[in-house]
């Protein structure tokens, strides 16, 4: 005859609180694909391929998250996008 022991463990899970923000760029009828791509490369350190993909997503979906990070890093990048004439915000 065998004896089975039941054990119960109390596990504490620490939930990570997301402090990440996002820069979202919105579609407009003013800026060309080339201008958007060049601006994303300059302001967000995108590769040419990343910038092109984001510009297509913006065009077809109306918006795209182009950069994620801490607010202090995103603020000057968003300012560069706005100064270049793009519609963008930090969310």
TrEMBL record:
Entry annotated with the keyword Protease: yes
Annotated keywords: Hydrolase, Protease
Statement: the UniProt record of this protein carries the keyword Protease: yes
Gene3D superfamilies: 3.30.1390.10
Chain ranges of the Adaptor protein ClpS core domain: 21-83
Top-level taxon: Bacteria
One Pfam family per UniProt: ClpS
Full protein name: ATP-dependent Clp protease adaptor ClpS
Organism classification: Bacteria, Pseudomonadati, Bacteroidota, Flavobacteriia, Flavobacteriales
């Amino acid at each position: 005859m065998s004896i089975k022991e039941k054990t119960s463990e109390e596990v504490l899970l620490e939930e990570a609180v997301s402090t990440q923000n996002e820069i979202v760029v919105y579609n407009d009828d003013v800026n060309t694909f080339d201008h958007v791509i060049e601006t994303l490369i300059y302001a967000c350190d995108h590769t040419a391929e990343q910038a092109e993909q984001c510009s297509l997503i913006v065009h077809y979906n109306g918006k795209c998250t182009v950069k994620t990070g801490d607010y202090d890093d995103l603020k000057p990048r968003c300012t560069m996008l706005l100064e270049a004439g793009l519609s963008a915000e930090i969310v």
